[in-house]
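Lab intake sheet, docking and co-folding queue.

SAMPLE TYPE: protein with bound small molecule
LIGAND NAME: nicotinamide-adenine-dinucleotide
LIGAND FORMAT: SMILES
REQUESTED OUTPUT: full 3D complex as structure tokens
PRIORITY: normal
SUBMITTED BY: R.K., bench team

The fields below were copied directly from the construct record.
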Amino acid sequence: MAEQRRIALVTGCGKPDGIGAAIARRLSADGHVVVVVDIEATGVRDSHEPADSVAQDWRGVESLVAELEAAGGAASSVTGDISVESDAERIIAHAVDRHGGLDILVNNAGAPFSLGHGDIAEVDAGEFDRVMAINVRGTFLMGQAAARVMRPRKWGRIINIASVAGRQGSRLNSAYAASKAGVIALAQTWALDLGPDGITANAVLPGFIFTTRTLSAMSKKAGGADIDRTAAVKSAPNIPVGRPGSPEDVAATVAFLASDHAAFTNGQSLIVDGGSLRL
Ligand SMILES: NC(=O)c1ccc[n+]([C@@H]2O[C@H](COP(=O)([O-])OP(=O)(O)OC[C@H]3O[C@@H](n4cnc5c(N)ncnc54)[C@H](O)[C@@H]3O)[C@@H](O)[C@H]2O)c1
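RESULT FIELD (auto-filled):
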């Protein structure tokens, strides 16, 4: 049975090879209207991401909209900081004003990996707070504003992109791991609070996924050495399927959770890591 055309909104879509852009492309290919969002049009570069990691003509969410439209889809973009309440409300209002409602919310935006990264004895408490503000408060504010729109429509899908770090911790990354555990707990709680209104909420927990961000983090760890995909595959021998994941692997799981087929899947944490963590 063909999926109904829905209105979807995906946060954190500013980078061409990020997970957010892959999710937007997949939902658009599945026939949905897609609103793509980021704090800045081209996204926030992590401190170790080289400036030349993105093509010069890439205009972030605007380029992504042009790409989706060229492929026959309907899309629009909006910028804003999800951790600011008025921005979160404005972003959701954009979907309603421009496209007539909101059915699918994908909370993909996340704090830069290096923010708050470091030894427990050294981590700056202000950086810890900012990671929590983006990942937990931002996800909460977006979910809250979306719930107000979805409830009267009696149908909705909320998908939070968490991380395996939220289940098993992450070395030198207290803030990131704690925030992702919070993102999982938000999905579990919304499953209870919104399930009776026809709205499901689930978390997706990616493991090691190839993006510019992860490749440059590996390069930093290796003292600035050039890390290509072949080298990265060799450095991930503990992934049972024998390779790191792609943004499209995550997008495929999101597409399932966003569909009518996932109507009875609610409050779950779907791990997308090639089998490293088996729960
Ligand atoms: N890449 C991986 O291996 C991996 C693994 C597990 C989980 N994740 C999660 O997947 C998501 C996407 O990660 P990615 O690897 O594509 O990284 P990414 O840096 O490409 O994507 C994150 C995006 O969020 C945006 N953002 C940051 N703060 C924001 C704010 N306050 N408001 C709006 N947008 C904001 C950034 O500008 C960026 O474009 C993140 O939540 C990340 O934690 C990634």
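REVIEWER NOTE: The chain has a mean pLDDT of 94.
SIGN-OFF: pending second check by T.M.
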